[in-house]
Structure to design on (401 residues):
């Protein structure tokens, strides 16, 4: 029997795919669940039980958290990459990691096809298709949800007729939870004015439930990446998980993003990203202290390009390795500590320090005395600096009285 390897989350869409691929297309189905930080041990066991109940021939559970952090999150942080200046790219990197593992299993199992549960409207279909096309170019790519064009309600009804029950709330929202954030789509997110109910949020407390008193934390960085929390060294995955828990307790990390999809239409999601908000804000402030003006400008520009390409499924374009090289070079001195205050759903980076600080009190203090130049140098600089503006005014007469 021909084999297909399916990226499997255990949700409505991939549950439908597993049954449809077996019953309607005649495939032996192998499922792969890649934990990118969104599953507990109990949830992974339930997903495995779900897969077996759907009569798949084999199920793989793979821990992809370290891979996602090392290959993707690290550059999102170092590049200060935020889609639309708000969204920390919580999903795009996960899809690449999932495609990598699906491609590996497909080769090991000698499968003829690979499959995913993406629709025909969103970004995920492109991310999966492009990545799998690079990683498993000899495999047929199947996407039943896309090719059928069914609604989630119709999928649920089709499954119910075959004795497969799905939770009713699954029909209303599509929730993707990972190490780098949770995205929420469905119902209210399809309207640019509406907002989903409190019940859809998983990582952040409602403001009425957060602690009354503010709390300060310290995040330590080494060469652009967070390495400690309140002076205690942590691995990247552990630190992000702890910050998600800590900031989520204060209701921090919720946001809404409207943007252009890869297919050219507008899309809207609600997200929870407690750790990303704190880490990127802290990293940016530390860079302001240790990098030159031009370093920050060009690194942030290319960081945004990098984030956009990652989000749009182009991780394997060779220019991404070139951008990574520049970003890595820019982070040589981005080492130090940040102080962050958490209070009532908000956060503020209130302090930053580094041995590589360019803010030297013994040389110059903004608005006060300094030892790098004297008053004559400042006067001459001001005169020369204003020459282009003065010449334009003289020639155009725009500012003449």
């Amino acid at each position: 029997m021909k084999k297909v390897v399916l990226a499997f989350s255990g949700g409505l869409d991939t549950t439908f795919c597993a049954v449809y691929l077996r019953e309607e297309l005649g495939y032996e189905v192998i499922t792969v669940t890649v934990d990118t930080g969104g599953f507990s041990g109990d949830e992974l066991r339930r997903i495995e039980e779900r897969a077996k109940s759907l009569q798949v021939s084999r199920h793989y559970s793979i821990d992809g958290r370290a891979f996602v952090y090392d290959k993707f999150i690290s550059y999102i942080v170092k590049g200060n990459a935020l889609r639309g200046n708000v969204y920390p790219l919580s999903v795009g990197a996960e899809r690449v990691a999932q495609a990598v593992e699906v491609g590996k299993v497909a080769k090991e199992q000698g499968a003829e096809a690979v499959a995913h549960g993406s629709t025909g409207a969103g970004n995920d279909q492109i991310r999966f298709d492009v990545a799998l096309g690079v990683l498993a170019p000899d495999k047929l790519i199947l996407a039943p949800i896309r090719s059928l064009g069914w609604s989630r309600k119709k999928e649920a009804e089709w499954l119910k007729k075959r004795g497969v029950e799905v939770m009713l709330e699954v029909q209303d929202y599509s929730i993707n939870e990972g190490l780098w954030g949770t995205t929420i789509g469905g119902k209210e997110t399809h309207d640019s004015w509406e907002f989903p109910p409190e019940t859809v949020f998983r990582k952040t407390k409602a403001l009425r439930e957060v602690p009354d008193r503010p709390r300060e934390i310290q995040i330590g960085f080494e060469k652009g990446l967070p390495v400690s929390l309140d002076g205690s060294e942590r691995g990247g995955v552990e630190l992000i998980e702890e910050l998600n828990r800590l900031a989520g307790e204060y209701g921090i990390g919720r946001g809404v993003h409207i943007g252009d999809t890869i297919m050219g239409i507008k899309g809207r999601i609600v997200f929870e990203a407690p750790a990303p908000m704190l880490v990127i804000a802290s990293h940016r402030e530390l860079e302001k202290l240790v990098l030159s003006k031009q370093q920050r400008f060009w690194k942030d520009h290319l960081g945004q390009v990098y984030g956009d390409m990652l989000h749009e499924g182009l991780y394997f374009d060779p220019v991404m390795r070139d951008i990574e090289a520049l970003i890595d070079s820019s982070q040589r001195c981005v080492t130090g500590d940040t102080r962050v205050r958490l209070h009532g759903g908000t956060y503020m980076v209130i302090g930053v320090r580094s041995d590589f600080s360019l803010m030297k009190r013994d040389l110059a203090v903004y608005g006060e005395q300094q030892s790098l130049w004297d008053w004559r140098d400042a006067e001459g600089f001001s005169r020369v600096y204003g020459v282009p503006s003065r010449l334009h005014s003289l020639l155009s007469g725009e500012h003449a009285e």
In short: The radius of gyration is 25 Å. The domain at 3-171 is CATH 3.40.50.620 (Rossmann fold). The mean pLDDT is 92. The chain has three domains: 3-171, 178-353, 360-401.
